Amino acid sequence: TMKNAVPQAASLLLEKLLLLVHVRPLPAGSGGEPPPPPAAAAPGYYDTSCFKRGDLLEVPRTLFIHFGIYLGENRVAHLMPDILPAFTGDRRQIQQVVTNKRLILGVITKTASIRVDTVEDFAYGGSILVNHMDRLFEDQVLGSEEAARRAEKLVGATAYSLLWNNCEHFVTYCRYGAPFCETVKMIIRDQRSVLASVLVGLASIVCLGLAPSTTLPTIFIPFFLWMAG
User: Which of 168, 145, 7 is nearest to 79 (CA)?
Assistant: First the structure.
């Protein structure tokens, strides 16, 4: 029972982690390779004639959303966690579909890639909303060409953060020029916050003993503070 509970807890944690990064985990047993895309995602399924260069595309999932910038000619720029750009500059390798292993290692090492894929690969059979976020940034929408050029300039390897540099931040910068809150970012990223949380957690274990209520926060709170940086 206890042995079975540990893998289940780890699996749930991984699922939550993947939800936070705005990407869909691949089915278990896939061997790290994505399954064939659904028939609905076959080339030409999406009517790209209704998309304009610089459009912000959203693909709603059950619990999260993935974002990209349309570049024209059936191409979408989007940010995904990926470890591979840290080891090679070979575009042919990097351009291959990101596997679970590459994605998870990218999250852990805080590395990502702003890549260009077809609309079909970007949406993977999901429905697409166009410029749905414009209502939140009414007077901040940049020109379509400016948004596309910003996205194209950023293509390549980049740093990654669950809270401060994910796919949503990428598209809001490109289309709206929305800056990040640097003050809050610096506070959260301060490694002293991680150290302080570790010390408080260890003190609670010493005073209250080993228990899920003391041990789990000691492990996971510092971990997520570190990941947030």
Answer: 168
Q: Are residues 66 and 127 in the same domain?
A: yes
Check: CB of residue 81 under 8 Å from CB of residue 103. Answer: yes
* 198 belongs to a structural domain: yes
C-alpha 17: how far from chain center: 10
The catalytic site residues sit at 167
Q: Say yes or no: 68 and 171 in one domain.
A: yes
- 77-129 pLDDT, tens per residue? 999 999 998 888 888 888 888 888 898 898 889 999 999 999 999 998 899 99
* Structural domain harbouring 93: 55-180
Residue type, 205: I
Tens-digit pLDDT profile for residues 164-186? 888 999 999 999 997 644 433 44
Q: Which of 180, 202, 217 is the last residue of a domain?
A: 180
220 shares a domain with 171: no
* Domain count along the chain: 2
Closest Cα to residue 60, out of 133, 137, 128?
Answer: 128
Closest by CA position to 81, among listed 61, 57, 101: 101
Give Cα 210 distance to the centre of its chain.
34
* Amino acid (1-letter code) at residue 2: M
Mean per-residue pLDDT over the chain, rounded: 74
